[in-house]
Amino acid sequence: MLPLIAALAIAGAAGSARSASLEPGLDLKREAMIESGVPQSVPTALDSVPHPWPGVALSLSAVGAAAPLLVMGAVSQAHSDTRMQLGILATEIVTPSAGHFYGGLTRRALIGTGVRAVGYGVLAIGAASEGLWTNENTSDFGGGAVLIVVGAAIMGGSAITDIITVPGDVDRRNAEWLRTHAATGLRLNHDGHPEMTVSLRF
Residue 62: which of 166, 157, 154 has the closest Cα? Predict the structure, then answer.
């Protein structure tokens, strides 16, 4: 029964694999300058400050979703104790939200965690009715087995959603931070030519 759970969730989590907190009261000012005519790399305002990277967030959520399932699969090969496997699966409630926690999106992370907690609850009820908590598997595909599949689907779907959405969520978080902390302006450089500046206050 549990290999079926692992297969469902692993298939869902197989998608592609910091938020530095700003101290209150810290009054620093940094500038990133953009000059017309400068080829190749032009700095952006966010390059001047620490910020979470969407790619890192994606990797954290993907690894967070896959790691517990891989561990559970390895344990199932060495032990027949389904209670241990169910205990490992419980970590899947939190780990796919790692990318959102990293990006400073705590509310979004808790939403995903809550959905998976509901899914795990449904799965746990089904496991209990199938005797998996006592290692007395009935081997009957009844109502308990259906609950296990439904619970696994809820958890897997939520994990996939976290993996897919976390890069865009972190990008939007960075853009929102920039809108509230950045101001553009013009000044003359040392050659007397005008240049655009982006001033950040945080």
Answer: 166
What is the rounded average pLDDT for all residues in the chain? 75
Report field, pTM of the whole predicted structure over 0.70? no
SS3 per residue for the chain: CHHHHHHHHHHHCCCCCCCCCCCCCCCCEEEEEECCCCCCCCCCHHHHCCCCCHHHHHHHHHHHHHHHHHHHHHHHHHCCCHHHHHHHHHHHHCHHHHHHHHCCCHHHHHHHHHHHHHHHHHHHHHHHHCCHHHCCCCCCCCHHHHHHHHHHHHHHHHHHHHHHHHHHHHHHHHHHHHHHHEEEEEEECCCCCEEEEEEEEC
CB 96 within 8 A of CB 158: yes
The answer to whether 84 and 56 have CB atoms below 8 angstroms apart is no
Please tell me the predicted confidence (pLDDT) of residue 13.
Answer: 40
Q: Exposure of 84 by Cβ count < 10 A (0-12 exposed, 13-18 middle, 19+ buried)?
A: middle
105-123 pLDDT, tens digit per residue, is 999 999 999 999 999 999 9
Residue whose entry in the numeric block shows the structure tokens 């089904």? 126
Cα separation of 150 and 173, whole Å?
33
More confident residue, 42 or 65: 65
